[in-house]
Amino acid sequence: xxxxxxxxxxxxxxxxxxxxxxxxxxxxxxxxxxxxxxxxxxxxxxxxxxxxxxxxxxxxxxxxxxxxxxxxxxxxxxxxxxxxxxxxxxxxxxxxxxxxxxxxxxxxxxxxxxxxxxxxxxxxxxxxxxxxxxxxxxxxxxxxxxxxxxxxxxxxxxxxxxxxxxxxxxxxxxxxxxxxxxxxxxxxxxxxxxxxxxxxxxxxxxxxxxxxxxxxxxxxxxxxxxxxxxxxxxxxxxxxxxxxxxxxxxxxxxxxxxxxxxxxxxxxxxxxxxxxxxxxxxxxxxxxxxxxxxxxxxxxxxxxxxxxxxxxxxxxxxxxxxxxxxxxxxxxxxxxxxxxxxxxxxxxxxxxxxxxxxxxxxxxxxxxxxxxxxxxxxxxxxxxxxxxxxxxxxxxxxxxxxxxxxxxxxxxxxxxxxxxxxxxxxxxxxxxxxxxxxxxxxxxxxxxxxxxxxxxxxxxxxxxxxxxxxxxxxxxxxxxxxxxxxxxxxxxxxxxxxxxxxxxxxxxxxxxxxxxxxxxxxxxxxxxxxxxxxxxxxxxxxxxxxxxxxxxxxxxxxxxxxxxxxxxxxxxxxxxxxxxxxxxxxxxxxxxxxxxxxxxxxxxxxxxxxxxxxxxxxxxxxxxx
Length: 625
Prior knowledge:
The protein is α/β, with parallel strands linked by helices. The protein contains 17 helices and 27 strands. The strands form six sheets. Strands 1, 2, 7, 8, 9, 10, 16 and 17 form an eight-stranded mixed beta sheet that branches. The chain has an eight-stranded mixed beta sheet with strand order 5-4-12-13-14-11-15-18. A five-stranded mixed beta sheet has the order 21-24-22-25-26, covered by helices on one side. Helix 1 (15-26) runs parallel beside helix 9 (325-344).
């Protein structure tokens, strides 16, 4: 069997695997991406957070993704309707939320609404370019199996047209929710309630419907349409109204239904039941219909022997409410990739890699809890209509009591249809319940779209003993991540300078080169949107992460630090923050050392920041002796 030996193997070519591979390839780490091509372009995830767009900016994918993002005014709301283009039960205007206002003022990037296949296209362009430049190897149409960990590294087999023996120092497993590699490694999905509900996802196109929804009408343009009428109860996801691309998510009962029941004609009938004016669907094209199980689980481990690291859907399964799954996976990829790069470039001891699980698994658990909470909040409007979760659960329990084997297909469908009609009929008391529905929406008790704390405020708690053993963060007695308040139904983000939090996008006063002979003194950073000389154009207006370490100095600071050429310690970029213009809680901090992923690793209140103290912090964080 032919073989490949490399530093890192990334198993899985979805967004998570592409982000890991892009960062490692750009850092010059010998990496092999094993990509099993996915047939079709059935949309799945679509909501991208500010943090995800910041990460895409770092690797160069933000422009291509943002180009596919429709105007936020066309998707920044959820609509609860009897039928599309029919009567409106209620509308949640998420652009008016405190969460969106916080995000808009706290990041240079913006949330986006782009279908996963288009996101993958943008990321594939990055990895394809790296492959052409010789910075990344891609095994297309291959699947990894037979993974084993040993003292010197990891072995596996890549199966495609032929079999290839893979040997690597480290292995990143991001091969999806049904990860075969996770199973082979003995990693279990233990945290969380498990399976929640089954759905049938129906992909369809109707440009006429999309254009009608963009016009002034009774039904405003929205990202999600929750359709509640006696004929159908479903959630319709408008992936792109201008192109007329939609997904209809309908409840699915595999005990009494099968995928074969969802023929193109049956799917078209469901879609027409969700629209007030069926004639607007004259150009309807039904794509695929795929069953899927909504689950809520987090793996009990994110790493195996500090050699194999699990990320993305292979590490957790989230309910789609809140759109947190894909974004969590991208954050994991970003967190892990800089650490692998630091180890393989000789800047860090492999012990640094243990901080991946210490930082990202608690974050995944918190985000899973948030997604499950959103799932239950999604029942608030149906409950106001009279369709309680208890009624749904009782019907499901009754179905389970009927032995499927003793019922013919006609009887199964009759029982199922009668029960669902009763549930739909029960839910159809909208005229008497309008006040209750409006209260749910005005009190922000329904499903949120934006989560400012979960987007920009996820924190990594420093190790209590001051060593960088648990997280790659050094604690400070006076500075710790704040407790977020709840505003408009979600935890609120406030820009803060403290160990373990994302460095806020503070305005910059001046930029100082790491080369002391080229330090620029007193130069104002150019304002966003302005044009100036080539030299001034190199000065950013705000702090943005670029994949390197950065020392952010706050005035007044006597900075006695000048990093030399990259060697045992990584190169450190130095910038001065303009605290007079920054709405940031710095609370006496004079300097902050920021990791390549944009997280603050160390802060000081000393007026004089010396070479010795910065280098000492770096050595501790990188586990250098």
